[in-house]
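Sequence in, structure out.
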Amino acid sequence: MGSRRGPKVLVVDDDRMSVLMIARVASGLGCDCVTARTGASAWREFIRTRFDLVVTDLNMPGGDGAVLARRIRERSEVPVLLVTALDAATPAACGVIGLEGVEVLRKPVVPPDLRHAIERRLEDGHPGMLQTA
């Protein structure tokens, strides 16, 4: 095996347990995770580092996930998984309608569903990027 690093994923949620769960699932796929607890700190990380995927909560202090997704889309085509506890977990309800590459997942997200969504988003943008066991 070479020294190839896995995909870089930005994980954003103000809930510590959610961050840990998302990072654990992504790390299990061979991803290198960077975490943030607010939309503002996530944006600072995003403009400093090249990411392959962003997984963010919708409702957070310091700029919500929809604001973050729109800012990301203005700058790049990095896929975004937007996680929300809203009953109507749709792009329209989350304020991201019409944004290409943004997928909405309803909380609570179970690890197998999250794993599948991460795999799908990374494979769509970067075929062959994930490590396989």
